[in-house]
Amino acid sequence: MPLNFDKLLAAIARHAQTLTDAGAVADYIPALARVDPSQFGIAVAGLDGSLYCAGVAQRAFSIQSISKLFALTLALQREGDALWQRVGREPSGTPFNSLVLLERERGIPRNPFVNAGALVITDVLCQRYLQPERAVLEFIHRLLGRSTVAVDAEVARSERAHSDRNSAIAHFMRSFGNLRGQVGAVLDAYCAQCAIAMSCAELAQASLFLAGDGCQPRGARVLDPQATRRINALMLTCGAYDAAGDFAFRMGLPTKTGVGGGILAVVPGRMTICAWSPRLDATGNSIAAAAAIERFAAETGVSIFGGEARMPDGGRTG
Ligand SMILES: NC(=O)CC[C@H](N)C(=O)O
């Protein structure tokens, strides 16, 4: 029987709203701690152009590490497979900002979604673009087909002023020769990119190429199918840091999280889902957003591991 996605998302939002008291907002970036933590939003974007929303799905929030998806895609467009000589493809089993593996593994980060890996990706973009954060922003504008997205300058400044940990990671990798540019310039670009503000609806729509085997719905090719599938594989195994196994178990979908409280999930061949709520668990992942995506997957049956999914009336979203 087809599902009514509007009703489903409204029910999910009502339930998620009751979970928004649990956890804590990220306050190691002071500007992030100023957000109202009781907010929840969810958006589902289909490859057929459909969009379903509930809660504050149109309100912009700090995308933080979800930006690593766009930076990685841009770097892959430019560098291709050469990128994998400088960054690995293994889950780290460590927090997103950990340094511990870097010494043993000689400055090669485990994957592009931990901070160390994302700093290498930013370094690649710094070699390619005079204003790398602009390049990431313009790339997002091309994906969306509109220029509605901006960097939140206050969040960028706030993170840059408190970036000792990322600075240490960058210097350490540079000592192994795996960072080519100046640490200061890489951190400027990285903090600005993390401070991009987008809504659930915008994030879901901008990342549809990940569900579309590398193509946005209006047909533009962003990335070749193999590279796109590999990004999805990395999201499944590394997108939620040391909670990636738990996320794969609970949701059965590739996901990417950020300490702003956003979580993006991909249903290959069909749709993307983005949920947002600022309070995080100990691994830095939003509690209410994770619960919402888990429930959406359970109620619709979407999973990359098989089964019949229940789609909306009229068969929209693929
Ligand atoms: N997990 C995250 O979202 C971390 C991003 C954040 N800008 C940091 O570097 O700490």
UniProtKB/TrEMBL annotation:
Catalytic reaction equation(s): L-glutamine + H2O = L-glutamate + NH4(+)
UniProt key word NADP: no
- Top-level taxon of origin: Bacteria
Q: Which UniProt keywords apply?
A: Acetylation, Hydrolase
Q: Which gene encodes it?
A: glsA
**Assembly and interactions?**
Homotetramer.
| PANTHER family according to UniProt | GLUTAMINASE
What is this protein's record name? Glutaminase
- What family is this protein classified in? Belongs to the glutaminase family.
